[in-house]
């Protein structure tokens, strides 16, 4: 059973990114740490987030405008268009500094520090 | 245009009466680089007589948006197009300056296409907004609406002595930046303009403003200055943009910049809200005062374009 779980998780971790629904299941089963970034008034809050390696980051859009989360250094997959209330998650497993922005409103920038 | 000038077609007259022309819009006359505002109900109608041709600009339809203050963006777009069709003279063509859709979904793009066809808009030139290129860098947009002149999607054409240039400033945006034209497009623009005489009137259109209206909200284009350097030698340049869902104008030498209203929803004036986005608290019966179309007439021999913004009311 344990081996099966590991085999199932591996592609997700290798991809570095999981969608919300799959991520919830993964969270529940693996109990990985989670953090949330709210998008409100064309800004990411918190603007700089420090987490432990392996944390699952969830962005949730509270604006009436859609936003798209994209890694400046292509360190994780780009989100689909997030309409009001939509969320997107990425698991950041490697320590480092992850700069990201909104693909359609590029003045919106944020940073995640993974320790 | 005066209501009294309208012909006796009962349906159209009733439609125009319903639109409450008085105070409903402003006619902008650009003469030798100086912008003059006129009431639609005053001299505006007279200057239309001199026009050698006219075209209409619409913008920011946001098909797929269904929230306050506009639950029916398809309906307000149809109303805008009905206003175009109600004009005394047919426009030679229509420019749509981007954000056809809200989320770049194929069904939204198809819906926009169907509405334009149903309204018999004839030739429509499109440029994409950032809402039209999400996820696929505009592949679906360009497949349906692209002029297919250049691999990057930008294009130019000549119409009755006026040179029109459609630019794309919503792709390959950089973190922390504004709209972007990019080196390849700028090199093409330089070459495209090189053979024109300085007396050729030039109309440039793109989605995001080509000058820094309010960079804090992303309302500008990082490398628009280089494009302006190529345009400055011309005697008459008009730059038409969308994106900010409101009218703003600026004159810089022989270059005049305009932004257009949206057919979907208004946005706040620069800096008057925590962020851009839909003005949600507009009452339903007042929404039409914020939406509109732009009617541009070319007056032959005067190097001037007369720009009329009409609001739905």
Write a brief structural summary.
The complex is a heterodimer of chains A (115) and B (313). Chain A has 115 residues and is α+β, with helices and mostly antiparallel strands.
Structure description:
The complex is a heterodimer of chains A (115) and B (313). In chain A, 22% of the residues lie in helices and 39% in strands. Chain A is α+β, with helices and mostly antiparallel strands and 115 residues long. In chain A, the strands form 2 sheets. A 5-stranded mixed sheet of chain A has the order 1-7-5-2-3. A 4-stranded mixed sheet of chain A has the order 4-9-8-6, with no helix packed on it. Chain A is globular, with a radius of gyration of 14 Å. Chain B has one domain (52-311): 4-Layer Sandwich (Purple Acid Phosphatase, chain A, domain 2). Chain B is built from 7 helices and 13 strands. In chain B, strands 2-1-13-12-3-4-5 form a 7-stranded mixed sheet. The two termini of chain B are 15 Å apart.
